[in-house]
Amino acid sequence: MYGLSAKMAIILAFSDSICKYVSNHATFSSDILFSLNAHPGASVYDLTSDISRHPFVEPDLVFVHVGTNCLPMHRPLSRTLDDFSFLISVTKSRFPSASVVISSILPRFDSEVYDRRRSELNSHLLHLCSRQGVFFLDNGSRARRAMFSVDGLHLSRAGNISYAKYLSFSLSHYLQLHRRNCQHRFTLRGEEWPGLGTDGGSGRRTRSIQERSRSQGSTRDRWSGLG
């Protein structure tokens, strides 16, 4: 398929507009193909539909980043959580040989109300991913405002560069776990987004769900600031 070598690993990503520029700055190794499908303005339901119709049938890893467009007050969080549950089921059915990674929703600097709802939804997502046997990538909650554009919602150019490096490392790590046929009950935490001008390649670790529950939670997570 696509004329790829048998040794080429494939990471298939689905996202709303938040990650649409990540592939421009990704730092994956040459044996990894990163294919990003960005759907600006997408809800969880929209991406579920995109995933169900996608023709690419043999990825090693499927990464999903969505949810910020589902935070308005008129929409109950319980409904969004149900949508996530269905999204996970559809993704696992559509790509049965792949490991699935669900990303936490990034901070909202445009609305304190939305940001509180984001934090609550992320907490529920962590447990949902554990129950449904998929990976949960916790991006942390201490992002600096400088990582985001004027609107407080989308990443700035500097934020895109930093997040792309962080995501490249994180997904490469999950790919290693997939290759080792590890059980799909992990969350990658305690990470730092690499600062500009650094490779961000040290000091990272994988922690289990059980370890995470004994910690102080996401307030310890940090994204690196701009130097």
UniProtKB/TrEMBL annotation:
Protein name from the UniProt record: 1-alkyl-2-acetylglycerophosphocholine esterase
EC number: 3.1.1.47
Reaction(s) catalysed by this chain's protein: 1-O-hexadecyl-2-acetyl-sn-glycero-3-phosphate + H2O = 1-O-hexadecyl-sn-glycero-3-phosphate + acetate + H(+); 1-O-hexadecyl-2-acetyl-sn-glycero-3-phosphocholine + H2O = 1-O-hexadecyl-sn-glycero-3-phosphocholine + acetate + H(+); a 1-O-alkyl-2-acetyl-sn-glycero-3-phosphocholine + H2O = a 1-O-alkyl-sn-glycero-3-phosphocholine + acetate + H(+)
Superkingdom of origin: Eukaryota
Major enzyme class: hydrolase
SUPFAM superfamilies per record: SGNH hydrolase
This protein's encoding gene: LOC118403531
UniProt xrefs under Pfam families: Lipase_GDSL_2
InterPro entries in the cross-refs: SGNH_hydro, SGNH_hydro_sf
Organism of origin: Branchiostoma floridae (Florida lancelet)
Stretch list, region Disordered: 197-227
Limits of the SGNH hydrolase-type esterase domain: 38-160
Annotated Basic and acidic residues bias: 208-227
One Gene Ontology term of the molecular function aspect: 1-alkyl-2-acetylglycerophosphocholine esterase activity
